[in-house]
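Hey, I was hoping to borrow your eyes for a little while. A protein chain has come my way and I'm curious about its shape. Take your time with it, there's no hurry, and the full record follows here:
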Amino acid sequence: MAQSPKPISRSTLLQILLVLALCAGSLILLNLLGVFRPPPTESVLVFRVEATGGYANITLQAGKEVISKTTTVTTPWEKRVVVPRGEEVYLTASNPSQTGQLSCTILLEGRVWKRERTEAPKDGVACAGIVP
């Protein structure tokens, strides 16, 4: 004759339910933290140039945004660009007045990613990198 299975005790059932509740809670927390979301394929970059002379000569390459001929801009100058990850970007700036300070900055998702500064008589800076 076959024996009938033993009923599960109340304490064992509570332990199983507690483990299931902890697993469910962990999955919900991980989902809220974005662990299961795919990584973004684009990044927001902000390019900045500052010069004490009030203007600078720049070139820029960032995705579809290209300024290949040297262009004079008033400073502070800023440009926001959405760029695919893995893209090479650069910003160059020179100080035609050759006085004071000159800087270029690239912000990645709102944080300083690249920054270069110089003072006259040096008159050029470049910020570049591959978008992570």
Q: What stands out?
A: The CA atoms of residues 52 and 100 lie 5 Å apart. The beta strands are 42-51, 55-62, 65-74, 77-84, 88-94, 101-108, 111-119, 124-130.
